[in-house]
Amino acid sequence: MKYRRLGNSGLKISEISLGSWLTYGNSIDKKQAVRIIDKAYESGINSFDTANVYAQGEAEKIVGEALNRYPRESYVLATKAFWPMGDGPNDRGLSRKHIIEQANQSLKRLKHDYVDIFYCHRYDSETPLEETLRAIDDLIRQGKVLYVGVSEWTAYQIVEGLRVQDRYLLDRIVVNQPVYNMFNRYIEDSVVPTALENGIGLVVFSPLAQGLLTGKYRRGQAVPEDSRAADPKANTYFKDSLTEENLEKVEKLMAIAGELGVSLSQLALAWILHQPGITSALIGASRPEQVEENVKAVDIELSAEVLDRIEEIFA
After folding, report:
1. How many CA atoms are closer than 13 Å to the CA of 304, on its beta-carbon side?
2. What's the distance, CA 91 to chain centroid?
């Protein structure tokens, strides 16, 4: 495994991170989840991501229990708050009340004294930035949080957040967690330049486009019965991405991967790690073998010629 600094902070995290969205507490039982986390840890992954809303707290319980068997200083643990955790008017968002209550509840579920990164899971237009960022800063002063993170904030929102933090001498945002993959590259226009300019790391989620970049979906072939696309609960956006045009691009990418002797998922992850500003690619896994395969992407060197060929596919 290889490690990179998280923005301008002194924290170093693995180039591949392990997440728990749509898996632990949902489609994967506890024993399997623990095996996946163990495989990640054994493979050198030190960055583990969860959130209060994942399976309504169940994911945090599983992640916390699995990681508690390892030395606390040996891994980086992140959780988040924003999405509804109840039916009450204050059971959502980034108000001081919701942040403090959810942070404390997350720590109880995780059975940890602190988390390394606490993310604002989205931007809350109904709460003043100062209120949100002061609340997280207070958690830092209490030793319950070490670093501030945001997820899917626009470049403008990030800059406004930094402006508020600098004005009131609050701990600065050190990481943003946006979606990023070969098919979804919106962050390249303004989010990446803003991150680079302000020393903010990028830990990107859905690097394999929710399975589109794994090679399991092929042009002219039926959707595998055990795949996400075959699940009636799968989101509409993902199903809509299985177009002939996208599957044609997948075929071209698989040809490149074949020439390099790597899998499509390894190629997709290696491509991300070759892009400016990226600190880590956040993967999900339903089997330990998937972790074992994906971590090999950190050792794949892509030449300028290969990168140009990939650009041509998406031109």
Report:
1. 0
2. 23
Q: How far is C-alpha 192 from the chain's CA centre?
A: 15
Going 27 to 266 to 187 to 103, the CA torsion angle's sign is positive
- Calculated CA dihedral for residues 167, 170, 175, 177, nearest 10 degrees: -80
Q: How many CA atoms lie within 13 A of 83 on its CB side?
A: 11
- Containing 240, the helix (H) or strand (E) segment is helix 236-240
Euclidean distance between CA atoms 81 and 216, whole angstroms: 33
**Which of 3, 24, 41, 54 does the annotation list as catalytic?**
54
Q: What is the DSSP track for 78-116?
A: EEEE-S-SSSSTTSSSS-HHHHHHHHHHHHHHHT-S-EE
3-state secondary structure of 251: helix
Helix/strand/coil for 270: helix
| 119 belongs to the catalytic site | no
Structure-derived torsion over alpha carbons of residues 301, 305, 310, 315, reported in degrees to the nearest 10: 150
DSSP state of 287: S
pLDDT by 10-residue block (mean), the chain, 315 residues: 97 97 75 96 98 95 97 98 96 98 98 98 98 98 98 98 98 98 97 98 96 79 58 59 88 97 98 98 95 97 97 94
Q: Is residue 21 within 8 Å of 205, Cβ to Cβ?
A: yes
First and final CA of the chain: distance in angstroms? 32
Identify the pLDDT of residue 28.
82
* Predicted structure pTM score: 0.92
Burial class of residue 292 (count of CB atoms within 10 Å of its CB; 0-12, 13-18, 19+) = middle
The DSSP letter of residue 73 is: G
